[in-house]
């Protein structure tokens, strides 16, 4: 049962939101119809106020972040021709295709020795030559070289791919990877669960039900995960809410989801963008904020809602801290997948920049581990002379070692 939250009703401009505000104030669970009403409403300030009230009841004024490093070991993918929203995947002989050797992966990971990195976020393509042995060797080596760094790796789609090419059950693949060093799983690959949408943007990809089943199996083994939704392409509001309902139902069953992260579609350099005639940012700030707020209001059993500043810009992520968000993608190093799709944000954010971003929203920053335990708190003051100025930047050559840059080649 969601926690009750006090609502300031003087801000409500859309009368259709009054019954939803009543439910929020009583701590009553919202329906998918309520979610569609929220998406249809133009009263963004009220939607934000409702989500903010719920978030404050759970988390107060604290906003967390993690120091993580993205490693994308292969962009070779068998779904290159059917996953039409993707800008990252390549066929094996296509220009730009790559698969890291173990030495290249370790060279890229070496950055963790000179930074505050506490988590490796590892995802890639569905590569026929990157099976169970490839990842077992990788995870064991990473744990040997960086025992203090948490491994969050492999989407449900990648787990199912490994099971298929190695002729194993999902459960046995997860047990083996867990023993090799896999700690948690990311939520990517969900896209939108609607069969019609998946047939349009990601034909032949794991179905929504299969995605849920991989996460169910992971949760049963003590492997917790995140969950996502890719929005802003061909889906309807009803599609979005049915997707969120499936996530909420699994969380009711297992309690295994750590966080929900809505992901904005980027149309550059992919077939879907050409078909839709879109370039640049496919989503509006209005829709970005609404997706985060609806996630907070509807997914009452998922504790953490994260904004991915790489996809929606640091400015929108900062505003989202008043729209139900309590966690930000942290000091990322070398993110590739969304930048291939046209993301124009930096590939890294310094610690000072993310602290200023959080403080600039009037929030209290705290660094967390991968299970959302706070490991370092920071004063609730703005230290930047440029009050409110955001300063994300690409990591310098000094911060990213020569070996790191060689591995990216």
Plain-language structure description:
- Helix 4 packs parallel to helix 5.
- Mean pLDDT is 89; it is low at 334-345 and 383-409.
- This protein starts with 17 loop residues before the first helix and ends with a helix.
- The protein is built from 17 helices and ten strands.
- The protein has helices at residues 18-26, 32-40, 44-59, 102-109, 132-145, 156-165, 170-180, 195-201, 208-220, 237-254, 271-276, 285-298, 309-312, 314-320, 337-340, 351-360, 402-407, and strands at 62-65, 68-71, 119-122, 150-153, 225-231, 257-264, 304-307, 327-328, 364-368, 374-377.
- The chain is an alpha/beta fold and 409 residues long.
- The chain has two domains: 9-58; 64-407, Aldolase class I (TIM Barrel, Alpha-Beta Barrel).
- The strands form two sheets. A seven-stranded mixed sheet has the order 5-6-7-8-1-9-10. A three-stranded parallel sheet has the order 2-3-4, with helices on one face.
Terminal-residue CA separation: 50 Å
* Largest sheet: number of strands, sense, barrel closure: 7 strands, mixed
Tally of discrete structural domains: 2
What name goes with the CATH superfamily of the largest domain?
Aldolase class I
- CATH topology title of the largest domain: TIM Barrel
In the CATH classification, which architecture of the largest domain applies?
A: Alpha-Beta Barrel
What order do the SSEs take from the amino end to the carboxyl end, as H and E? Answer: HHHEEHEHEHHHHEHEHHEHHEHHEEH
Poorly predicted runs are 334-345, 383-409
The top-level CATH class of the largest domain is: Alpha Beta
Helix content, binned percent: 40-55%
Give me the number of helical elements.
Answer: 17
Structural class by helix and strand composition: alpha/beta
């Amino acid at each position: 049962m969601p926690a009750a939250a006090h609502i300031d009703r003087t801000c409500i401009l859309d009368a259709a939101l009054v019954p939803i505000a009543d439910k929020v104030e009583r701590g009553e669970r919202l329906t998918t119809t309520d979610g569609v009403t929220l998406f249809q409403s133009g009263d963004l300030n009220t939607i934000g106020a409702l989500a903010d009230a719920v978030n404050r009841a759970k988390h107060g004024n604290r906003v967390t972040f993690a120091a993580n490093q993205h490693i994308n070991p292969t962009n070779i993918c068998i779904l290159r021709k059917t996953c039409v929203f993707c800008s990252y995947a390549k066929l094996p002989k296509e220009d730009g295709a790559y698969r890291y050797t173990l030495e290249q992966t370790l060279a890229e990971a070496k950055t963790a020795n000179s930074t505050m990195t506490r988590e490796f976020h590892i995802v890639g393509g569905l590569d026929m030559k990157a099976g169970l042995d490839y990842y077992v060797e990788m995870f064991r080596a990473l744990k040997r070289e960086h025992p203090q760094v948490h491994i969050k790796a492999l989407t449900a789609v990648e787990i199912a791919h490994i099971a298929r090419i190695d002729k194993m059950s999902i459960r046995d693949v997860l047990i083996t990877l867990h023993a090799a060093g896999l700690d948690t799983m990311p939520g990517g690959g969900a896209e939108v669960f609607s069969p019609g949408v998946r047939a349009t943007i990601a034909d032949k990809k794991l179905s929504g039900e299969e995605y849920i089943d991989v996460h169910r199996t992971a949760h049963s083994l003590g492997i917790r995960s995140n969950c996502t939704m890719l929005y802003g392409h061909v889906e309807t509001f009803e599609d979005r809410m049915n997707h969120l309902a499936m996530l909420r139902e699994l969380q009711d069953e297992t309690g295994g989801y750590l966080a929900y992260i809505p992901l904005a579609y980027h149309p550059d350099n992919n077939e879907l963008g050409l078909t839709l005639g879109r370039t640049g940012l496919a989503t509006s700030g209005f829709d970005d904020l609404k997706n985060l707020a609806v996630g907070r209001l509807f997914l009452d059993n998922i504790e953490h809602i994260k904004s991915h500043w790489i996809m929606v810009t640091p400015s929108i992520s900062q505003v989202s801290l008043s729209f139900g968000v309590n966690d930000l993608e942290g000091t990322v190093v070398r993110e590739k997948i969304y930048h291939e799709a046209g993301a124009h944000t930096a590939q890294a954010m310094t610690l000072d920049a993310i602290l200023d971003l959080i403080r600039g929203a009037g929030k209290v920053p705290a660094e967390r581990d991968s299970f959302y335990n706070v490991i370092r708190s920071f004063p609730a003051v703005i230290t930047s002379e440029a009050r409110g100025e955001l300063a994300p930047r690409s990591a310098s050559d000094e911060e990213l070692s020569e070996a790191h840059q060689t591995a990216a080649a």
